[in-house]
Specification:
Rossmann fold; six-stranded mixed sheet; eight-stranded mixed sheet; about 25% strand; ABC transporter ATP-binding protein; transport; alpha/beta; about 600 residues; globular; cell membrane; P-loop_NTPase; 21 helices
Length: about 600
């Protein structure tokens, strides 16, 4: 009985009806999930991994899909087996949430913005478990403590928008676990989260699985997460299962070419240790070629001194400033020509605000920013517009930074038109060359953003940033939303451009393994200050600040034999960056521990 699978997917086929006829989302997939087992479904966007999970929940119909073939057998609590593909939606409502729980990728869309967290948690308990209000509230509090949300009682009365991304995701996990389901489906539950929160959530799902015997179907494109979580792995590619095996078999002896390509594209933390590679190197990626390192030059391009940015918090009847959020506090660094400085840290540490303050997309309170000898902070409107031709930004979400109603040709041409660089036929040629540069076919010139994949859209954003031949590009989490192999291609492209054009990058990221690959220098940020700064090798091979060490420890390793236990992950909660108006923080002071390697000596709060 124990070995009988909780869920069996047999020859599943899912089709979506479109204007051009049916499109196959999943062609032919079969696998099963046993009690107390974690099965990881791996693949890139569009491989059909999420469609498989939505079919199991019978939610795929609500997205325009239909189950065209196959059986979805589910072993219910009472011991009778049913085929979910033929079950009517009434019975599915009882099973959903009660016997199959689901954690969605995007916590903000999975929670209802108009109800408190407490109300959303108790709803399922009262509906499925027949609890009264008091029992449900007690159980909700217990669940929030179980997922380690600080100040759980206060959180029950709050609304989703008042919580950070990591906390919202914990609430979604608590909701999925509320009725102790037999099967938990987790669809990319940590993609948008910081390493430290990701590490805690992975350990949490693992612990809950051991304690309750729940089976877990875990969908992800991150091979390091697979190594941390999986018992068995199913690799999907274009709607089909191409390989299945235990986690050790897949990592140590992958059979299918696609699995091998996926594994080779993963940047691994510590991969460059001990090798004498001072400069960034391209990822081996799918093509398997390495290029020469990029040394850059010693000339300083950007100099940032004592940058401080605070956001006022208004309150009271007259909307007076009652407090300030200290987003960036006394930050100094310099970037040399043709080199990359990476800023790493968790959400809310101020790294994006640093990038935006340098470009004056937000106005800093104090500090100096000089780019190529020009003081950016002192410039008026016209001077700033002129200076911005030398510094461009690539944002995290290319869909939000591109205009959905303009053809890509016009979007890339826009900066050239604004600055009257070229006209007419010359303009078209220039845009076509930029498309060649970022390795996009010229046929895409007439397309719109929604017709491209995420990685292709990010290439368009890079082409637009390159249009004016800038000296500095600020890349704000530019690859964090992309699949591993696409991420490898975009990073390689950025490094090629750096080698050819002598670009300097300020690379903002929370992914330590990527940062290790692309950086010459690294700054680690915590609560608005840089706590450690130095050449890449010094910071990664000899981290001195306790926060840098905690960050390194949290990074999952793509090796199933080196899993993290929950005991290793004891992170301190991040204190609030909000302070009263009259609060004057101490200036940042540093100690040089080795040439160019500095550590903050002022109390950073960690």
């Amino acid at each position: 009985m124990l070995d009988q699978p909780i869920a069996t997917i047999e020859k599943l086929r899912v089709e979506f009806q479109t204007k051009d006829g049916p499109v196959v989302g999943v062609e032919d997939v079969s696998f099963d999930i046993k009690p107390g087992e974690t099965v990881c479904i791996v693949g890139e966007s569009g491989s059909g991994k999420s469609v498989s999970s939505l079919s199991l929940m019978r939610l795929v119909e609500y997205g325009g899909g239909e189950i065209a073939g196959g059986r979805l057998l589910f072993n219910r609590r009472e011991g009778d087996e049913i085929d979910l593909a033929k079950t009517d939606q009434g019975l599915m409502r009882t099973i959903r949430g009660n016997e199959i729980g689901m954690i969605f990728q995007e916590p903000m869309t999975a929670l209802n913005p108009v109800f408190t967290v407490g109300r959303q948690l108790t709803e399922g308990l009262r509906l499925h478990m027949g609890m009264n209000r008091k029992q449900a509230e007690a159980r909700a509090l217990e669940l929030l403590n179980q997922v380690r949300i600080p100040e759980a009682e206060r959180r029950l009365k709050q609304y989703p928008h008042e919580l950070s991304g990591g906390m919202r995701q914990r609430v979604v996990i608590a909701m999925a676990l509320a009725c102790e389901p037999r099967l938990l489906i987790a669809d990319e539950p940590t993609t948008a989260l910081d390493v430290t929160i990701q590490a805690e959530i992975l350990a949490l799902v693992d612990r809950l699985k051991r304690e309750t015997g729940t089976a877990v179907m875990f969908i992800t494109h991150d091979m390091a997460v697979v190594a941390q979580m999986a018992d068995r792995v199913v690799v999907m590619y274009r709607g089909n299962k191409v390989e299945e095996g235990t986690v050790e078999e897949i990592f140590e002896n992958p059979q299918h070419d696609y699995t091998k390509a996926l594994l080779s594209a993963v940047p691994r933390l510590g991969e460059m240790t001990g090798k004498d590679l001072p400069e960034p190197m391209k990822l081996l990626g799918v093509e398997g070629h390495r290029t020469d390192p990029i040394p850059g030059s010693e000339d300083v391009l950007l100099e940032v001194r004592n940058l401080t940015t605070r956001f006022p918090v208004k309150g009271g009847f007259f909307r007076r400033t009652v407090a300030n959020v200290h987003a960036v506090e006394d930050v100094s660094f310099s970037i040399r020509k043709g080199r990359t400085l990476s800023l790493v840290g968790e959400s809310g540490c101020g790294k994006s605000t640093v990038g935006r303050s340098i470009l004056r997309l937000v106005e800093p309170q104090e500090g100096h920013v000089t780019l190529g000898g020009v003081d950016i902070i002192a410039l008026g409107h016209d001077g700033l517009q002129k200076a911005r031709a030398d510094m461009q930004m690539v944002f995290q979400d290319p869909f939000a930074s591109l205009n959905p109603q303009m053809q890509l040709m016009d979007q890339v041409a826009e900066p050239l038109r604004n600055y009257h660089v070229v006209k007419g036929k010359e303009l078209q040629d220039r845009v076509a060359q930029l498309f060649d540069r970022v390795e996009l076919p010229r046929s895409f010139l007439r397309r719109f953003p929604h017709e491209l994949s995420g990685g292709q859209r990010q290439r368009v954003a890079i082409a637009r940033a390159l249009a004016l031949n800038p000296k500095l590009i600020v890349a704000d989490e530019a690859v964090s939303a992309l699949d591993v192999s696409v991420q490898a291609q975009v990073l390689n492209l950025m490094m090629e451009l750096q080698a050819e054009l002598g670009l300097s990058y300020l690379f903002i990221s929370h992914d330590m393994a990527v940062v290790e690959r692309v950086s010459h220098d690294v700054g680690v940020m915590y609560l608005g200050r840089i706590v450690e700064m130095g050449p890449r090798r010094a910071v990664f091979e000899d981290p001195r600040h306790p926060y840098t060490r905690a960050l390194m420890k949290a990074v999952p390793i793509a090796d199933p034999h080196r899993r993290k236990s929950e005991k290793e992950l004891n992170f301190k909660p991040i204190p609030s960056p909000m302070h009263p108006v009259d609060y004057e923080p101490a200036p940042s002071e540093y100690e040089e521990v080795s040439p160019g390697h500095f550590i903050l000596t002022t109390d950073s709060g960690y």
